[in-house]
Amino acid sequence: MSETSETPCYIARCKCGCGGLIFASVQSQQMSKERGNDTAKEVSKLIRAGYSIERMTVGDVRAATWLCKKDRVHERLTPKEK
Ligand SMILES: [Zn+2]
Known about the structure:
Blueprint: E1 8-13, E2 21-26, H1 29-35, H2 38-48, E3 53-57, H3 58-63
Antiparallel strand pairs: 1-2, 1-3
The structure holds zinc ion (ZN).
Zinc ion binds next to loops.
């Protein structure tokens, strides 16, 4: 594994505007080969579900708040609906 805190990730934030992360995936060419580019698929699914995708480093992802700050106990924010 050559993942460092500088490794870039794609992330998606909660739609309510709280800033919590609901998705993060390391952007890695190796991983794309092994996993058939799952990251691109996941990212395009999230975009279609109305999330805006941003990029940040692994270090920033680790330091970020995960899940909705307003409602983090009650709801799981997985975009399964079409
Ligand atoms: Zn939220």
